[in-house]
Amino acid sequence: EDKPERQTIRILAPEVIAQIAAGEVIQRPVNAVKELLDNALDAGATQIAITVKDGGKKLLTIQDNGHGIQEEDLVLLCKRHATSKLQSYEDLTGLGTLGFRGEALASISCMAHLSVITRHAGSPAGLKASYRNTELEPSGPTICAAQPGTTFVIQDLYYNLEQRRKALGTGVEEYARILDLVGKSAISRPDVAFSCKKQGERRPDLHTMAGASRRDNVRIVYGAATAQSLLQVSCRLPSEGDAPQSLEGAAAFSAEGCASCLHFSGRRTICLIKVNGHLVQCRPLEHSLEAEYHSHARLKPFIFLDIKVPGDQVDVNIHPTKHEVILLHQEEMIQAISDALQKVHSGEVQCSCSHAIT
Ligand code: ADP
Ligand code: MG
Question: Which residues cross the membrane (predicted)?
């Protein structure tokens, strides 16, 4: 008889568990870039430079001028659930930093050759350390010359995960994803200078200046026509009062941003939603904003919204790969924002796009 042989249940080896988890957190090179960008921003960086080879499969470096890492922290740096950002579960509410799980570096160190060069503010020299499977290499950190700040170097991503490697797009495709992310990050954070280039090229493919305006960065990333079409949008609930505060059972938020005018249509819809500092996905909101434009000849808009809500009204889904956000009182918020957008489009404010000027 062909009865399959009885398999006994076994618990997977820790390295196998770690690799599976790592593959979930970092599904593509762009996910690694996102995590390292968030870390750099959390470290207070005002300049972030990214270098990419073969779409990030061969090499990714991310250099920041943030506060750096202290020598005594290097041992734990890539350990799973090691973080300087969260102590108790309660800290998750009203979280100020972008990362908090202490999983990104652990994951990357399990499927790439990861090293860091860091110089802590006030330290005379830099330190270089390499990691493998969450552990600092036994040789330990070595002293080196370095600018203040931190540079992560990721080489041969997925060297030990053939399946994952095969599932990736070409270098060109993966690089396009990275460039897209860096562009969106630059629009989200015009106070920070971003650059992104291919290894060996002199000219970056994307370069923004610290302290530029959001419109400047939209121009750099999406072009002049998009930048010129932008109208300011803002709204809040309750409509009176200062900082949004949770009144019992009522929606409270503020939203500030910009959206394209009705003369403009892009190649595709771009909708950037920031909630309490995180770029997130909020599909119901995106759909209803898009619907505002679709009622006008299916325009493809550009929209950026910076939304602030009290910490207890947002659930930034804490699963590492999901950037979907769930908001309390979502319906009322969406209604208020849609109304504000409609009001802007109804002609109270003039856009400066070429169609309006003629
Ligand atoms: P998390 O961001 O969730 O804390 P990570 O694995 O991304 O977890 O990073 C672990 C820790 O390493 C961070 O909490 C932070 O203390 C430190 N760290 C990571 N990247 C940087 C950086 N660019 N500059 C300074 N410290 C950093
Ligand atoms: Mg992080």
Answer: none
Closest atom of ligand 1 relative to the 35 alpha carbon = 7
Ramachandran sector of residue 158 (left: φ over 0; alpha: ψ -120 to 50; beta: rest) = left
CATH topology of domain 223-357: Ribosomal Protein S5; domain 2 (3.30.230)
238-248: per-residue pLDDT in tens? 876 545 554 55
Query: Closest ligand 1 atom, CA of 100?
Result: 3
Give the pair of three-digit tokens for residue 203. Answer: 């000219």
Residue 244 CB less than 6 A away from ligand 1: no
Question: pLDDT tens-digit profile of 52-99?
Answer: 999 999 999 999 999 999 999 999 999 887 777 766 665 555 555 555
Q: Which fold has domain 14-215?
A: Heat Shock Protein 90 (3.30.565)
Dihedral sign computed on CA atoms, order 35, 106, 122, 141: negative
Residue found by looking up tokens 């994952």 in the block: 164
- Could you tell me the distance, in angstroms and rounded to a whole number, from the CA of residue 36 to the centre of ligand 2? 6
Residue 106: burial class (beta carbons within 10 Å; 0-12, 13-18, 19+): buried
Ligand 2 geometric centre to CA of 104 (Å): 6
Beta bridge partners of 207: 195
Answer whether 40 contacts ligand 1 (Cβ < 6 A): yes
Nearest-angstrom CA–CA distance, 179 and 201: 15
Judge if the upstream peptide bond of residue 284 is cis by omega within 30 degrees of 0.
no
ipTM of the complex: 0.98
pTM: 0.90
